[in-house]
Amino acid sequence: MKTGLIGAMREEILLLEHDIENLKIHEIGARKFYEGTINGKEVVMCLSGWGKVAAASTATSLVNLFNVDQLVFIGLAGSLMENLQVGDIVVADQLIQHDVDLSRLDGFPMVKAPFYKKFRFPVRKGAQRRALEAVKQFTYKLHGGEYDGIHQEYNPTIHIGAIGTGDQFIASNKKKEKIVDEYPELFCTEMEGGAIAQVAADYSVPCSVIRIISDNADEDAHDSFARFLFEDISKISVEIARLMFV
Question: Which of 11, 25, 88, 190 is the most buried (most CB within 10 A)?
């Protein structure tokens, strides 16, 4: 199985480049695609950039140009639930694009949606299971003291649930509450996962999304996001990504 591995930012996944054997780097458009194997398993890794268009462009290239069999996204997210703490890990069971609003068309039955009317994309059980196994293995190794580069007090809780996607960095309680009011099932919010899930649905390719909570999507989100990004995220996300290829 060939895996298309995506991260929005350099800090989230690109350290994994050093693990890729038989590395070939392809420059296509604005992006570099890192192709090779990890533990004998085929991988093509790419930095997408922020937002749904960037994520969809990257995912489409991985499917059409590299013929990947699954898509995996790993990165940061803002919490939408009080019981989620900074550092907790969410494995998606569905991706919801919370910034799509077609409600005004509900009164016009003659208007047929060309592809999707509901922008909710469930994660296939097999893909969800593989992602969850990698995260569980990470926490097992973490508790066993195998990661010297990760803060010793880091003790994440694993959650399985819905992840929301929208083209906005949520950094106010007002915006956060608006999303929660409409989609109370969402565990966290980010900017890419739902777009990758839509591309995966278009091409009938399984995808999984793993998000590490970096902030509470409130007025302190900017500072919390920056601290987490430059302190621990590269070590955490790369270790989880590496375990996808065990």
Answer: 190
